[in-house]
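Quick illustration, no need to memorize.
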Amino acid sequence: MSNRGKEWEKFNDIVKDHIENYTIPQYGDMPNDQMTTASLDDIKHDIQRYLNRMGRNARGLEQALRDMVKVAHYACIAYNKIVEKVKE
């Protein structure tokens, strides 16, 4: 496996842990969570909000890392919403 592939697998584990241990307990799982009804524009807005916070957050680099995990999670949701539109 490539180094980029290994890097992705490690990041994937971090994102999955965030989803399972933070997001799902707090917001629920699809199809009963708020992201199920969110539009693609809503999700793009949320991604941009997290990107804009990076580097400006008073809580520092750890919060920036957490925000990047959230961006990855939202990107996955957006990707799947686009896949749904392609299938229509």
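The radius of gyration is 14 Å.
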